[in-house]
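Key result, reporting period 2: structure in, sequence out.
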């Protein structure tokens, strides 16, 4: 079975109680459970990883090819706007990545309008809440078919 790596960046462990007017009330566990449902139907295996540490995210992306992943779904959270290291890690591996955001980053503060990660990804889904993850995973499943 194909394996997809789902990466959640900093502060996404706080979903459910974090700025609910922006990010909604779904917890990270409930988002992961929803993605598991889609994965089961589609015959792919998901591995979830959440970290508040840039280097840990760089490390797991860097070994994603060797670890047998066929695609990555990543919400880089605040690192979207700052991390050359995560962008370079995605560019360094031949595993296609899909960037997702719960909120529409282009409708928010100006510093969120730039994604350093997007140019290294196949595409980006932004602004659909939990559905951004579902759409992103669906795209990732197609990429590894
Ligand atoms: C986010 C948007 C980022 O700007 C922010 O730093 C996050 C979450 C989103 O999913 O909407 O932590 O990636």
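The corresponding designed sequence is given below.
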């Amino acid at each position: 079975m194909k394996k997809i790596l789902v990466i959640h960046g900093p502060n996404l462990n706080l979903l459910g109680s974090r700025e609910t007017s922006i990010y909604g009330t779904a917890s990270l566990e409930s988002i992961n459970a929803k993605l598991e449902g889609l994965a089961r139907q589609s015959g792919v295996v998901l591995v979830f990883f959440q970290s508040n540490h840039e280097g840990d995210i760089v490390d797991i992306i860097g070994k994603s090819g060797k670890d047998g992943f066929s695609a990555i779904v990543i919400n880089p959270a605040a690192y979207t706007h700052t991390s050359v290291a995560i962008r370079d890690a995605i560019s360094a591996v031949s595993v296609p990545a899909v960037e997702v955001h719960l909120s529409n980053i282009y409708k928010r503060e100006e510093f969120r309008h730039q994604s350093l990660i997007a140019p290294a990804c196949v595409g980006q889904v932004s602004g659909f809440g939990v559905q951004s993850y579902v759409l992103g995973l669906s795209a990732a499943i197609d990429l590894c078919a």
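Residues 11, 75, 77-78, 80, 101-103, 105, 112 surround DQA (CB under 6 Å). Helices lie at 20-23, 28-42, 54-62, 84-92, 130-143. This case is discussed further under Risks and Mitigation.
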